[in-house]
Amino acid sequence: MLPGLACAQTQMTRRMEEYGLIVLSHVSKSYGDINALDDVTVNITKGEFVFLVGPSGAGKSTFLQLLYREEVPTKGSVVVDNLNVTRLPRRHIPLLRRKVGVVFQDFKLLESKNIYENVAFVLNVTGAPTKFIKRRVPQVLGLVGLSGKEKSYPEQLSGGEQQRVSLARAIANSPRIILADEPTGNLDRDSSWQIMRLLAEFNKRGATVLVATHDWPIVDAMQRRVVEIQDGKVVRDDAQGGYSSSVSSNRALGR
Amino acid sequence: MFRLIGRSAVEGLKSIWAHGLMSLASVGTVAVSLLVLAVFLVVAANLSYIADILESQVEVVAYCRPEFDRHWEETLLDKARAIPGVGEVTFVSRAEALDRLRDQFGTQADLLSAVEQDNPLRDSLEITVANPDRIEEVARGIAAIDSIEDVAYQQEVVQRLYSVTEALRTAGVGLIFLLAAATFLLISNTIRLTIYARRDEIEVMRLVGATAGFIWGPLVVEGLLLGLIGAGLAGAVVFWGYSDLLESIQASLPFLPLLATQPLMGNLIQLLAITGGLLGLLSSWFSAQRYVRI
Which residue of chain A comes nearest to B2, CA vs CA? Predict the structure, then answer.
C-alpha cells in the first residue's frame, strides 16, 4: 500500500474517532404518543466516562437501549463505533452487541449457573474457543476481585458481588464500550463505590463508559462529564460536573 | 459450525427432558397424527392395489345354457376368440367350477356336500379383455353366441372400489391437514414454553451478541427431535400393527390380495419420518422467529 494512502486512512480514522465513538444526532424516540427522547444530540469520544442523569422516566434507559439496538430511534441517527445502528441489518446486530458490554440494575445473572459458568456462557455463545474461555474467565473474575468464587451460585453472593459478576461478564468479550443502567440502584454505599471504581478502572484501561444513574453522591464526587436528560431532552452537558447544576436545581425549586 | 450443531443438539435434548410432560404431549400428538395418516395411506394403498388386481383380471364370465354339450367346446372357444378385443378364453366345466368353490370354502367345504350330488353350476367361459375400456363391447359379442345364456363382468365392482379409494384419499388429505395443523400448534407451543423457561438465558445471549443461529439452534433441534420421535412411534405402531394384521388376514381370508409388508412399510416409515421432521422443524422455526427477538 502507498504510504500516503495509509497515512490518509489513519488520519481519517482518527478524525472519525475524534468526531465520536457514540454519536446521536437529532434523535427522537416515541412510544405511541409518549416522547421518550426528543431531538437529542450527544457526541461521546473514545475513552470518555459519562454520567447520564435525570429523573426516572426522563429517557435515560431509552438512551442506552438505542446504543445496543434494543430500540430503534423514531427519528435521527445513532452511530456506535462506526456502525450506523439505525440502519443496521438484523444479522449484524450481534456484531454491534459484541462491541458493547451492558450492566443492569438487576444484574441479570443466570441462577442455574455458577459464577464461572455465568461468565463462560457469554464467551461460549459468542463462539470463543474453549482454551480462551478457560484462561479468560479467571482473569476477568480476578479483575473484579472475585477470584475463588467461581463455584458459588449467584444467590450465595451479596448484591455487590453479583453486580461485580455481571461486570466481569460485560467485559469478558473486551468490548470497547460499557453501558451501565443504574448499576448501583440495588446496592449499599460501599458496594456502589466498588462498582463505580471498577467502571472507572475499566475506563482507564481504555473502555468508553456510559453510566445512567440516580446516585448523586457518587456523581458529585467523581466530577466526570455529566449529561442530564429531562422529559426526553438534553438539558445539560457538562464536561465536568455534579449530579445537579444550578439550572436544574432552580427548575426543581421553581416548580 | 460443528460446535453450533453440537451445542444445539445437547441443549435441545436437555430441553426435551426438562419439559417431560409437555414434550410427551407433543410427541404423542405427532405420533397420533402421523398414525392416522399412516392408517389412511395403508388402507388407500391396499384398496387401490386390490382395484388394480381386479382391473388387470377384468374378465367376462359367460355362462353356457344348461343343455350345452361339451362336444362343442372347441367350436365355442373358436367363436369366442374371433370376437375383437378378446384376450384369452378358458373353458371352465361345471365340475371344475365346483372344485374351485370347494377350495374357496376351505375348511368349511362340507357346507357344499348338499349340492355336490346334483351340481347346480354350469359350464362357463372365462374371457380376459386386453383393454378394460372395451369390456362392454366384448360382453355384447359373447352374449350373442348361441350357446351362451348369460354374461357377467366385474367392471362395476372395480369402479366402486376405485371410487371408495378416491373418497378415502380425499378424506385422508383433509384430515391430514387438520392433524398437521394440530401438531404444528402443539410443537410450536412446546417450543414457546422452552423459550419462556429459558427467557433469562436468551436475554443474556441476545445482549452479549450471540447470533440468531446460536439462539434458535437448540429450539429448532428440539422441535425436530419432537417430530422425529413422534414419527418413530407412529412408524413402529404401524409396522407391527400391519405385520400382525397381514398375518391374521392371510390365515383367515387367504384369497384377499394385500400388499406385502415391504416395500410398503419402508416407504411409509420414510414418509412419516420426513413429515414428522418437517413439521417439527417448521413449527419450532415459527416459534423461534416469532417469540425470540434478536
Answer: A127
What pTM, to 2 d.p., does this model score? Answer: 0.70
Across all residues in chain B, what is the average pLDDT? 83
Q: Quick check: ipTM above 0.85?
A: no
HEC sequence for A94-128? HHHHCCEEEEECCCCCCCCCCHHHHHHHHHHHCCC
Partner A, chain B 200-219, Cβ-Cβ below 8 Å: 200-201, 203-212, 214-215
- Residue B197, chain A, CB below 8 Å: the answer is no
Contact A67, A210 (CB under 8 A): yes
Crossing angle of helices B212-252 and B2-18, rounded to 10° = 60
For residue B61, the SS3 value is strand
The dihedral of CA A22, A174, A209, A89: what is its sign? positive
pLDDT in tens, A118-138: 999 999 988 899 999 999 999
- How does pLDDT run across B84-110, given as a tens digit for each residue? 888 888 888 888 888 888 777 766 777
Residue of A nearest to B215 (CA): A125
Interface test with A, best of B2, B5, B204, B294 (most A CBs within 10 A): B204
CB B85 within 8 A of CB B137: yes
Cell of B118: 346334483
- Under 8 Å CB-to-CB from B104, ≥6 apart: which residues? B255
Contact list in B for residue A126 (CB cut-off 8 A) is: 208-210
